[in-house]
Amino acid sequence: MDPTQSVVEKSAIRKVAIRLVPFVALMFFINYLDRTAISFAGPNGMNTDLALSAAQFGFASGVFFIGYILLEIPSNLALHKFGARRWLARIMVSWGIVSLLFTWVGSVEHLYILRFILGVAEAGFFPGAILFLSLWVPSRHRSKILALFYLAQPLTTVIGAPLAGLLIQQHGFFGLEGWRVMFLGVALPAIIVGIIAWFYLADSPAKAKWLTAEEKTWLTGALETEKKATTAGNKHVSVRTVFGNGRVWMLSAIYFGFIYGLYALGFFLPTIIAGFEGLYGAKFDVLQKGLITAIPYLPAAFALYFWSKDATKRGVKTWHIALPALIGGLSIPLALFAGSPAATIAVITITAMSIFAALPNFWTVPTQFLTGAAAAAGIALINTVGNLAGFSAGYITGWLKDLTGSYTVPMFVVGGFMLLSSILMVALSRSGKVSDGIPAEALDPAGAGHHAEP
Predict the structure, then answer these.
(1) What is the pTM of this model?
(2) Is the pLDDT of residue 268 over 60?
């Protein structure tokens, strides 16, 4: 590579990282906050006002994913037809309007319906955002770009939990209960940012006004060259074959364990913290509960960044995924026997760090053996199974809590699923069906990103 081209490449990637990634990460931040806002509302008045049992709360949390799953593939097809910029903006405004309606939810049935419709409205956003970012950078830069994007997920709780606590404290605003004010406060940004996205985002480097002509030429050329090389050089697995591929289903099961742990914590951690008063006699106001909820996720953001950086340097190895799954699976049940609020949160922090350390590296694995349309179908299948875990985590955790009277059994189930993910990852590697030590930047974590039309 000549020096001039190197300078253009660096400036182009830097501009994408500065101008595009933070905005898409902000969209993801609001997305994750809106889908998990119910976890803050539940223990802070909503469960009491709507007379919800733990199982009903769990079902309301999880039914979101049923709507999401049903519309995920049609939404992704629409994204290709209408363009990522327009479709992502449309998704965001739609879910913002639905989120706003939670302000006036009046019954458990109404709650179920709105959570289902919220899933329908949000369908396709996460894979759409991943695909959108993949259309902007060649694969050797993609793992770094996606790691920056993924940071939005743990940071949502770091910032969002205290924010939710502050909003809930505004009890009486417009005559609303605090938890209703919180729903109002987190819904409006989705509508506003969604409208801005329509004008701010560009569908491809060629349409970006903030790139120079040289940067546009380099990015467009690099992506086109990569597309042709991949199409000509890889043996494509058919889409139909994907659904009978044992490796894809094994990866789906591994991902299920991670997402089960992620959402079991996401939906029930505020409730567990609210229970500290009864267990340990500790008293916290709403803001303090929000701050405590945020504690595990800040170290998780650091773990995500540095673990992914190590994987990029060494090459993604089996232990980059299996080891965090093992640590997370062992730590989450131990949190129940920690003996104090501080020790409980410390152990849960280890669990959160484990989940977020593994997730970005996990997504480099499917494209070691899938390309083109098969990669798109395989990753869609894996993501769909993960969304089933989101539903299961909410419903099963609440149901087992009602059945047993405590969170002991539900958290052992979470640990069991994560341990299973670790075992399956090792088994998959030892079977020789997944390459080990491939540099992360040489892979395409977005699946068929550079095969799709902008």
Answers:
(1) 0.76
(2) yes
Which of 25-29, 272-276, 331-335, 355-359 is predicted with the least confidence, judged by mean pLDDT? 272-276
Diameter over CA atoms, the chain: 68
Q: pLDDT tens digits for 122-141?
A: 988 887 887 788 778 887 77
| 113 vs 71: CA distance, rounded Å | 16
Torsions phi, psi for 271 (to 5 deg): -70, -40
* Domain range list for the chain: 18-208+233-451
CA–CA dist 186, 183 (Å, integer): 5
Q: Name the CATH code of domain 18-208+233-451 (choices 1.10.10.10, 1.20.1250.20, 1.10.760.10, 3.40.50.410).
A: 1.20.1250.20
Question: If you search the block for the tokens 């094994």, which residue do you land on?
Answer: 250
Distance CA 401, CA 407 (A): 5
Amino acid identity of 189?
Answer: P
Tell me the C-alpha distance between 70 and 55, whole Å. Answer: 23
List beta partners, residue 438. 316
Q: Are 448 and 372 in contact (CB under 8 A)?
A: yes
